[in-house]
Specification:
Elements: E1 7-9, E2 12-16, H1 21-31, H2 38-49, E3 54-59, E4 64-71, E5 85-91, H3 100-109, E6 115-121, E7 136-144, E8 160-167
Parallel strand pairs: 5-6
Antiparallel strand pairs: 1-2, 2-3, 3-4, 4-5, 6-8, 7-8
Helix pairs in contact: 1-2
């Protein structure tokens, strides 16, 4: 896994996850009315420490604003075992539409290789993620619980995913 280089953009800084970020991110989830997700965040910390996942955290001088993780190989979908994948992208509500997500994407895409993938849910809660710059559907159609969805099937929940891919600029 490539080392995460810090990126500073004005007041915004993107860094590798720090141990203290587990609690800070959990508190940010609670502040927006979600569960703290501490078990997930602890796993991310352990996987980053073991070199199995890169966790990019956006922060300003006083708080965490969001995060994005990248795994070296997708675990699910049409690119499983083939391409790096961006997984679990969260910019907390008060900081959305302020360039935080773009900065996280820029940092996470750097050093990923010539192609990178991501899966995005299809209900309205994923609206912002459905408009990611430069990503296009890969052509494999919709996936549900890690399998292509059959024609005529109906299901709309977090397990309904469209996979996207981006060709990275070299240089």
């Amino acid at each position: 896994m490539t080392e995460i280089k810090s990126l500073e953009l004005g007041r915004l800084q993107i860094t590798a996850m720090r141990r203290a970020d587990v609690v800070a991110l959990g508190q940010a989830f609670v502040a927006q009315g979600w569960s703290a997700r501490l078990a997930v965040l602890e796993r991310y910390w352990a996987e980053q420490t073991a070199g199995m996942r890169a966790v990019f955290v956006a922060r300003d001088s006083t708080r965490v604003l969001g995060y994005l993780t990248r795994v070296p190989q997708a675990a699910h979908g049409p690119f499983a075992g083939q391409l790096p994948e961006l997984v679990d992208f969260n910019v907390f509500g008060p900081y959305q539409r302020q360039g935080v997500g773009t900065a996280l994407m820029t940092a996470a895409e750097a050093g990923a290789g010539p192609r990178i993938s991501l899966g995005v849910g299809l209900h309205a809660g994923y609206g912002a993620a459905q408009r990611l710059r430069g990503y296009v559907p890969d052509g494999s159609g919709l996936w549900y619980r890690n399998a292509p969805l059959a024609r005529g099937a109906v299901c709309v929940n977090d397990d309904l995913v469209l996979y996207l891919v981006k060709e990275m600029q070299e240089g």
